[in-house]
């Protein structure tokens, strides 16, 4: 199953499990009904930011959309111009975390919508120089440096250098109840 099939099937399954129409899913996720329909029909590849909105609206981990259950190789999701995200490990429900390796091309900017309440993100730069926008402030992180922040507010990642930046993104979701 390719990534478009997986996105389509995952979105349909989530809507069915919640008993939501496209209109209800759009209201919960902040993603237009038209866009959700296009994803389900495999007519559009959503950006990483759009997938975050959908995952947050359905209260599921981001990796649910990019990691098919039968995946043998790590999938690389690159629907956002200049950004790729690949799960380092499959989502671990007992620990409640996604562990992604993210690469930003030179000049790339990725704006992430707020995640669910209580979500904490850890970012560690592996290679290059990353600018991270949190709490209305831009921070510059260099190779080997990291930052932990509450991710239930919009935040952004930027690469203003001539070389790609690669970093870990560990996203911790609070346990229900």
What labels would you give this structure?
177 residues; alpha+beta; Jelly Rolls; 2 domains; 6-stranded antiparallel sheet; 4-stranded antiparallel sheet; 4 helices
Describe the model.
With about 180 residues, the chain is α+β, with helices and mostly antiparallel strands. The chain has 2 domains: about 5-65, lambda repressor-like DNA-binding domains (434 Repressor (Amino-terminal Domain), Orthogonal Bundle); about 75-170, Jelly Rolls (Sandwich). About 25% of the residues lie in helices and about 35% in strands. It has 4 helices and 10 strands. It has helices at about 5-20, 20-30, 35-40, 50-60; strands spanning about 75-80, 85-90, 95-105, 110, 120-125, 130-135, 135-140, 145-150, 155-160, 165-170. A 6-stranded antiparallel sheet has the order 1-2-3-10-5-8, with no helix packed on it. β1 (about 75-80) and β2 form a beta hairpin. α2 packs across α3. The chain is globular.
């Amino acid at each position: 199953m390719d990534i478009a099939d997986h996105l389509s099937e995952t979105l349909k399954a989530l809507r069915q499990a919640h008993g939501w129409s496209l209109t209800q899913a759009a209201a919960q996720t902040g993603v237009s009904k038209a866009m959700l329909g296009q994803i389900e029909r495999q007519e559009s590849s959503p950006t990483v930011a759009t997938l975050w909105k959908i995952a947050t609206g359905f209260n599921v981990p981001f990796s649910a959309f990019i990691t098919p259950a039968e995946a043998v190789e790590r999938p690389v999701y690159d629907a956002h111009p200049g950004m790729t995200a690949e799960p380092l490990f499959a989502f671990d429900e007992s620990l409640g975390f996604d562990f992604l390796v993210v690469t930003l091309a030179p000049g790339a900017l990725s704006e992430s919508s707020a995640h669910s309440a209580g979500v904490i993100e850890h970012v560690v730069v592996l290679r290059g120089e990353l600018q991270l926008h949190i709490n209305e402030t831009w921070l510059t992180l260099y190779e080997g440096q990291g930052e932990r922040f509450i991710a239930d507010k919009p935040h952004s990642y930027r690469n203003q250098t001539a070389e790609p930046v690669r970093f870990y993104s560990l996203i911790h979701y609070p346990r229900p109840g």
